[in-house]
Amino acid sequence: MAEETPLLELVKVCKAYGDRWALKNVSLKLYPQEVLGVVGASGSGKTTLLKILYLQETAQGEYRLNVPGWEGRNLLLLSRYEQPAARHYLAMVYQDAAQALRMGFAALTNVAEPLVLRGERRFGVLAAEAQEALERADFPLERAGDPPASLSGGERQRVQIAKALVQKPLAVLLDEPTTGLDLLVQATFLDTLRRLKRQLGMSLILVSHDLSVVRAVADRIVVLYQGEVVEEGLADQVLEDPRHPFTQDLVAARL
Amino acid sequence: MKPKHSYAYLDLEAKREIRRKVLKALAIPGHQVPFASREMPLARGWGTGGLQLTLSLVGPQDVVKVIDQGADDSVNAANLRRFIAQVSGARTTTDTLEATLIQSRHRIPEERLQEGQILILQVPIPEPLRYVEPSDARARELHALGDYSLLWVDLFEEHLRHGRSRKGAAYPVLVHGRYGMDPSPLPRWDLPKLHLAAHITLFGAGREKRLYAVPPYTRVEPLAFVDRPFQPEPILGSCRRSGCRHVFLNAIPQEDGSLAYEISDQGYMEKLLAGKTSGPLFVEKEHG
User: What is the DSSP secondary structure assignment for residue B221, as one 8-state letter?
Assistant: First the structure.
């Protein structure tokens, strides 16, 4: 795996809010068809990291995507008018669906939206592709016409996944996607993620404070502590044999 | 005795400001130009934008027609017409073909307008993105980027829910392939009349202090999916006075709960009833 070129790479990214460091020298790589788990307590810089990855936040350092046309370009130097083009390669799934979805529009419309943004102007194609993505995300199709406002938490997350799938992104970023869902719904949602990874070879970055969620899906784990990467390695390795005291606490603190 | 106001009510500076902004609007078809909207002797929302445009363009040799929902004799239209005639000395008419300036709310006359004629529309909400993007600052940015995908998303939702667009007014159009424009409260029926039209169309929103324009022979295309073409309103009845069913009809509720229909463009109906020949229509007769 080491000789493969990463899809996405952060090199020594730093971010400060005022005189407080949110991220210090964070480097990470995402390889094709891999799930990278990012673990950390509240305030460890997880959200900032995701915002930087999704180009919603400026930072110092380097950020590269291995896509034709973008080789060697540092995405952190893009102007806000170039950012949307780079963002096309990424999709974000939020903890709170209201951040990503139009709660009053039909689920199907929400899923079709990224295609509309890319210039698809055939109603039939839009509807068919959106429906296919919803089906892939195990969303109950009979509710495709309902707005997310009237859907359950788990269904909303599936709409978000479908919205990400329809873009055929290079990588999907997931920000605490199962937090706030009950255990059963969490389990089925994680099943869907695992299946998508297996069937479509998707690459995911999964950010969570919940070790059991990360353990269930991630291949590799990065541990963030006070804005720094303190541990990195294969999921089992990190969880079975944690080196850093913070990771040890985290693993020991599992219920 | 010294007159109480300058010619055509607005002072010179105000008229110059509006004319300059009209020129700018004509140079950038469909683009909303902010202008210094004045206090007028009628309430905002009653056509102050249209009235300011008319007054800054009118001269004593002009012939003015004012319509409201197609009718020359509705209260608002009659008041505006009387006011314009009083302050400018221009002649007034109900004949579309004779008029040089037509101020309107809701309708474009059925008879085809010619080069040299100016149609002025009173606009309540000039921003086509208002319903999909609540922030005006963001909406202006989207106009600058030419990004109207939010309007398409909205259109998708309508087709998904109802199988068609149900917008009776303010159906968004793309002008000259560049700017998204709110065509005021025009019904869908009137939108094709704007496309490659010979006349000038000006839109004035007094309360929102914006004006915009469609110069002659400019492309005006209603947004529509390739496989779901744009459709004007169907004609559901025939005119109770003339029997016509080839132009836009008003539905008039009857005491027994049924609907009667009447031609909306009153000037055109008068011509038909008087047996006069009308000019060529925008929408040629399809149904007898």
Answer: E
**Closest CB from B145, B156, B228 relative to A112:** B156
Q: Do A109 and B160 touch (CB under 8 A)?
A: yes
Q: Do B227 and A117 touch (CB under 8 A)?
A: no
Closest CA to A202 of A133, A156, A143, A144: A133
Cβ(B216)–Cβ(A112) below 8 Å:
no
* Residue/partner pairs of A22-27 with CB below 8 Å, 24 or more apart: A22/A48, A22/A227, A23/A48, A23/A49, A23/A52, A23/A59, A23/A227, A23/A228, A24/A227, A24/A228, A25/A61, A25/A228, A25/A229, A26/A61, A26/A224, A26/A227, A26/A228, A26/A229, A27/A229
Note the ipTM here: 0.84
Encode pLDDT of A13-71 as tens digits. 999 998 888 999 999 999 998 999 999 888 888 889 999 999 998 899 999 998 888 88
Distance, in angstroms, between A1 CA and closest chain B CA?
Answer: 40
Q: Of B149, B153, B228, which is closest to A123 when you measure between CB atoms?
A: B228
B178 Cα to chain A: minimum distance (Å): 15
- Around Cβ B286, how many Cβ atoms within 10 Å? 8
Q: Summarize pLDDT for B145-171 with one digit per residue, the tens.
A: 899 999 999 999 999 999 988 888 889
